[in-house]
Amino acid sequence: MSFPLLTATAAVPAIGAIATAAVPAARRTAAKWLALLFSLATLVLAAVVAVRFEAGAKGPFQLTESHSWIRDFGVRYELGVDGIAVALIALTALLIPFVILAGWHDADPLEAPAPNRRWRPTQGFFALILAVEAMVVISFEATDVFLFYLFFEAMLIPMYFLIGGFGDRAGADGEERSAKLRSQAAVKFLLYNLAGGLIMLAAVIGLYAATADQLGSGTFSLTEIVQARADGKLELGTGTERLLFLGFFFAFAVKAPLWPLHTWLPGAMGESTAPVAVLITAVVDKVGTFAMLRFCLQLFPEASSWATPVILVLALISILYGALLAVGQRDIKRLVAYASISHFGFIIMGIFAMTSQGQGGATLYMVNHGISTAALMLVAGFLISRRGSRLIADYGGVQKVAPVLAGTFLVGGLATLSLPGLAPFVSEFLVLVGTFSRYPAVGIVATVGIVLAALYVLVLYQRTMTGPVKAEVRTMPDLKARELAVVAPLIALLLFLGVYPKPLTDLVNPAVDHTLSVVDRHDPRPDVAVKADAEAAK
Amino acid sequence: MENLIALLVAAPLAGAALLLCGGRRLDRAGHWIGTLLALGSFALAVPLFTELLGRDAEHRTLHQHLFSWIPVGGFQADVAFQLDQLSMTFVLLITGVGSLIHIYSIGYMEHDERRRRFFGYLNLFLAAMLLLVLADNYLLLYVGWEGVGLASYLLIGFWQHKPSAATAAKKAFLVNRVGDVGLSIAIMLMFTTFGTFAFGPVLGAAGETSEGKLTAIGVMLLLAACGKSAQVPLQSWLGDAMEGPTPVSALIHAATMVTAGVYLITRSGAIFNGAPDAQTAVVVVGAVTLLFGAIVGCAKDDIKKALAGSTMSQIGYMILAAGLGPIGYAFAIMHLVTHGFFKAGLFLGAGSVMHGMNDEVDMRRYGGLRKYMPVTFITFGLGYLAIIGFPGLSGFFSKDKIIEAAFAKGGTEGWILGGAALLGAAITAFYMTRVMLMTFFGEERWRKAPTPSPAEPSVEPAAETRGEYTPPHPHESPRSMTIPMILLAVGSVFAGGLFSINEAFVTWLEPVTSVDHGHPPLSASAITTATIVVMVLGVGLACLQYGRKPVPAVAPRGSLLTRAARRDLLQDDFNHVVLVRGGGELTRALVQLDHSVVDGAVNGTAASMGGLSGRLRQAQNGFARSYAVQMLGGAAVLIAVTLLMRGV
Amino acid sequence: MNPVNYLYLAALLFTIGAAGVLIRRNAIVVFMCIELMLNACNLAFVVFSRMHGNLDGQIIAFFTMVVAAAEVVVGLAIIVSIFRTRHTASVDDASLMKL
């Protein structure tokens, strides 16, 4: 038997979580280094996965592992990756070390711990981050619907504690009030996502019942179900398929988040610390959009086509609505959150445009948005930690006292507004082109989002970084070495993927083609070629 | 030889990277590195130019394919360059004028502690601009297109501590973004129509698709050009962009970046040729802007803003010419090059004046400066003669051709366009003479303390108004600043004549743009005479108003038109009311909506759940006997249901 | 004799027990009524066992008795301790079942 590489990639951070949690209370620094070490080990494994993966090889999934798990219900421990999953696993494994490094001091207890106290917030913080990583990675790997569902839901638990348990050091309204707001945000996050998950559970059970009914033995295996549907062995009625699709889609749309199911995100991102906010939007939310591609489209191709018009409109609303609300925010982190809602609108639009450019662009968008938001949000976090305020109005003239901080903030912002030359441009343009080639009106309206993105980014930059230096920021120190070590690689990556995204597109293209062939949609041909064909036919 | 093309872009790009990431260590050498790399790019351009000259006209196109950029399905974007006559012209202009302005900036920015960064941004601009003109497909052009927008943003807002500069920078980027939307939609249309967006295939296949599609693409390209080239209705950013350091105004907002729209339209000639409606839109925009800019230029007292109005107007000429089709393309580019020389020279002259006058920009505080700044006066004067089209100088040759081409459009259209162009020439002569007289002639108004002006509340009352006033000491600028000015003045004088020998310039561009002479309803000499006459009229009128009478140090109230022109013909007021305030209301309303309706629905669900559970909780009163009743009732219901189900 | 009659008896006993639980306040009486209900159930089990001709019902009856005995032990102990602290055995005085 070959080495279970995918299991190892998920198991290493899981072991790391346990190990970190077990570090004694007094050895906080050791816990941090341990967590960083495990996250780096995961990164190495993810790199091995990416190298071992052969883009364009036969079969939808590679590096597969399959073991029987709960035999009576046909639940299997089935793992496998396609190009999209590899890209997202790589993104996750890449971002976690930066998240850990950026949150190095975020969970230090305020006072020195009493000798015998079992209170270990630092250990807990880093253990929870690793736990989230493990669950996210296995969600990307799972090809068994039940296994996926299990971890899709389970990751809410560590996220809940990360949001509710750790906040920014000082709030304008005092510690008590911010703790209350924080716990409200955490509860909202948990309940909202649980509600989505519950509806999905019903759909999962419904799917199982259908397979048990028609295939003899029930199964949750994605590959088996897709195969059975292609062979005509499994016939879902139109109504059933649409209901099941909606059940799945609802959960993913909450997670993604799609308008109007987005309201948990600004609170959760605003109240948690910057690294946790990055974890939410750059890593955990990606599971939602990823699952749309992998499960919604592949399990229910016809229902996906049926729902496309409505979803495209919702995505369009997300794009414009998120951007407009970002313009109106007074809180830096909430602004980034609304900007993310706008970007998730682009991702969902690209997925449901059902063209190779749209879906390839959407996948790239997931990766690029992860990196760009991480860069912007982490720098924003460094800024906030210096001044102890999230309000934009409390800043001004920062670039004069901290030029490197301002410069990196600007680059993060420019990535967010998809400036050509930086990675997000590639994906955003692909999504727009992909959408435009099938639904021109939608594509044109979505381009308005480009202008709005420039507006909220530049307004944010102008109000915080330029103008006369405010008294409170006069002594603000510039980025420290640790902080620069977080931001510089992210920016380098943004530049690299903006100039040379080919490695990523080569990875993703075959997977997208496979998905499109399952859905049975083909790219529209250009007018001139169509005309030439018609003439040739004559 | 082809392999040198990438180096053209790479040299300034490397400079930008080095200077922006290099840190304080490079502070002392930064400006030299930046200037050397700009010169290096120019030095690379020259052998490429001679190489092209050495070939016969049909084979003067070089290609360099670097790597495949975004390959997804049928969408194949490459990083590849194309150097033909049109690109070569731009490359020489950009690197040449760019190098001169780098040299000028060494002196101009000498006392700025962030000079290294300034040169980094300038190099970034050069790289992006070269990418724009060298790209062999529209998507790569788009990268350069937004790249110059970014450089422009950074440079306009270079003095970020001034809120006005930061706002102007933001405004420029945003208005440009609106234009960029046009470009991206045009690229998407090209992709769905032709399956590609590389110049060769798209322009080659333009004839194979419907006119409607071509018109749509053309109009979208025009929108992009309007944003970048400050044409009506997206012109409002250019005046504010003068907040940037003067070398920036000269390089980006006069000589190169703002002419990118003309490049785009000329480059896409094949598309416009097939879409007469789009062409009409282009000439209308050009004609309206050339008058708009000229009128604004007449009313501004800020020397840079007056020149900005002039830039707008001159680019209007170019856009007009480009919209005329093959009769105009070559002249649009020719005017672009000559304009690059004289307008850059004028701006550098303005910068030199400001340098000697403690950064004063109000022309009403100038006067009689020719004695103190002879070199500036002469170079500025030559630029002035060139722009008003004084016979024999550059502007005369290029502008006259455009007016001829406008008449050659034929029919009523031709008369209207030609008339507008002539009128524009008259106004140009008027406002440029005004600038010249107010700055270099007349009373030395700067000797007296300024009086606060009620008409222009935007002018901040200087600190000196309260204490005793120390007049500035006008002086000539250092040699690093005057030499570029002299070189540009030489270009302003001779370039036009040189290009017109045997129509050398038109012949050079012909393979790219194709040339058609058209049939003007008047003879060429008649038009030339008319041009000279209106020019003399404009100059004369300005002399009457500003030369004979003393210029008031405080702007008079002026007519309704003057007041409107001072406020950019109320464009900004419109923007403010409709976009800024309207948009603000919209976002506030949406924030409220999100909070109370969208999130309210969620919170409402949660609250009603809470209320319901509160109600249910009361049933749990803790008394054993009430529990017993509930149990009994429950059991009874269960049994009843079971029996009923059985019965059914 | 018709075994159904025993079922009627069981039902009667159960009703008496249930009514007692609901009406009486004295904890001891309530407790006895519960026992009465349990025994009514036992009777019904045994009757069913007889009617169906197998031993399942009787076995369950034995289980019930064992459970009932255990419950009596715990229940009486609780009643006694409540009586000690409150000097009353009325079930309506104490709402101890909620926090």
Question: What's a concise summary of this model?
Answer:
Chain B contains 24 helices and two strands. Chain B is mostly helical and 648 residues long. A two-stranded antiparallel sheet of chain B has the order 1-2.
Outline type of chain B: globular
Q: Beta-strand level of the residues of chain B, as a percent range?
A: under 5%
Count of DSSP-assigned helices of chain B: 24
- Helix and strand element order of chain B: HHEEHHHHHHHHHHHHHHHHHHHHHH
Oligomerization status of the protein chains: heterotrimer
Largest interface: A-B, 70 and 61 residues
Approximately how much helix is present in the residues of chain A? over 70%
Distance between the termini of chain B: 93 Å
End-to-end separation of chain A: 58 Å
Q: Enumerate the spans of chain A where pLDDT stays under 50 for 5 or more consecutive residues.
A: none
Strands in their spatial order, largest beta sheet of chain A: 1-2
- Main sheet of chain B? 2 strands, antiparallel
Strand arrangement across the biggest beta sheet of chain B: 1-2
Mean pLDDT of chain B: 86
Number of domains of chain A: 1
Number of H- or I-type helical stretches of chain A:
21
Rg for CA atoms of chain B: 31 Å
Could you list the spans of chain B in which at least 5 consecutive residues all have pLDDT below 50?
454-466
Structural class of chain A: mainly alpha
Q: Which range best describes the helical content of chain B: under 10%, 10-25%, 25-40%, 40-55%, 55-70% or over 70%?
A: over 70%
What does it look like?
- With 538 residues, chain A is mainly alpha-helical.
- Chain A has one domain (5-110, 118-537).
- Chain A has helices at residues 5-21, 28-52, 83-102, 121-141, 145-154, 156-165, 175-215, 222-231, 238-255, 264-271, 274-299, 301-327, 332-352, 356-387, 398-401, 403-416, 423-438, 440-465, 481-499, 502-519, 527-537, and strands at residues 62-70, 75-81.
- Chain A has a two-stranded antiparallel ribbon.
- In chain A, strand 1 and strand 2 (75-81) form a beta hairpin.
- The longest helix of chain A is centred in the middle third of the chain and has 41 residues, at 175-215.
- Chain B is mainly alpha-helical and 648 residues long.
- Chain B contains 24 helices and 2 strands.
- Chain B has helices at 4-21, 30-54, 85-108, 115-134, 138-156, 163-194, 199-204, 211-228, 236-240, 246-255, 260-267, 269-273, 276-299, 303-323, 329-356, 374-388, 394-408, 411-440, 479-500, 504-513, 524-548, 560-566, 571-617, 624-647; strands at residues 62-72, 75-83.
- In chain B, helix 6 (163-194) runs antiparallel to helix 8 (211-228).
- With 99 residues, chain C is mostly helical.
- Chain C contains 3 helices and no strands.
- The relative contact order of chain C is 0.13.
- Classes of the chains: A mainly alpha (538), B mainly alpha (648), C mainly alpha (99).
